[in-house]
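Page 37, continued from 36.
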């Protein structure tokens, strides 16, 4: 009888652990986007980045986003619909876009080699683009300067 009670208690514990959902997880899409929108460098949402052949660099990669540079003065942060397992360690990127513009539904193809895919790599499915925002790399420094200039008020 004691073994049966222990088995039931173990099953309840296991089922309770499985009852959590992805929406409760801190890495959910909504939580990620909310955290991203708090970043002062994130600007207005845009519907596309044209002339993807002009993208000359990328950085700030996470499992759900990457910042790309289109020119010395134009950067964008691209988010994906789901977590993209190779994006945060990518050494190079390719874009599977329809036409000359990258937009929602197109794919980012991250590669672990700086030279793109090799014959030894497994085929990459890519990560679907969800949203694209303007990125102001200087905004963080400006926000810190504004905070430093604000006088502190004391309540009496």
């Amino acid at each position: 009888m004691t073994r049966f009670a222990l088995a039931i208690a173990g099953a309840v514990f296991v089922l309770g652990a499985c009852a959590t959902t992805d929406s409760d997880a801190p890495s959910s899409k909504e939580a990620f986007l909310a955290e991203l929108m708090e970043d002062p460098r994130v600007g207005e949402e845009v519907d596309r980045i044209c002339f993807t052949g002009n993208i000359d660099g990328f950085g700030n990669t996470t499992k759900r986003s990457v910042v790309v540079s289109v020119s010395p003065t134009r950067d964008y942060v691209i988010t994906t619909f789901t977590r993209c397992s190779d994006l945060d360690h990518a050494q190079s990127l390719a874009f599977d876009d329809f036409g000359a513009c990258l937009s929602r539904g197109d794919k980012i193809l991250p590669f672990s080699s700086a030279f793109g895919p090799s014959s030894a790599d497994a085929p990459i499915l890519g990560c679907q683009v969800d949203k694209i925002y303007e990125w102001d790399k200087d905004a963080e420094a400006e926000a810190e300067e504004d905070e430093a200039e604000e006088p502190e008020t004391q309540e009496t």
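Residues 1-26 have pLDDT under 50 and may be disordered. Flag for discussion at group meeting. The beta strands are 42-46, 48-50, 57-59, 65-71, 74-80, 92-96, 101-103, 107-111, 127-135.
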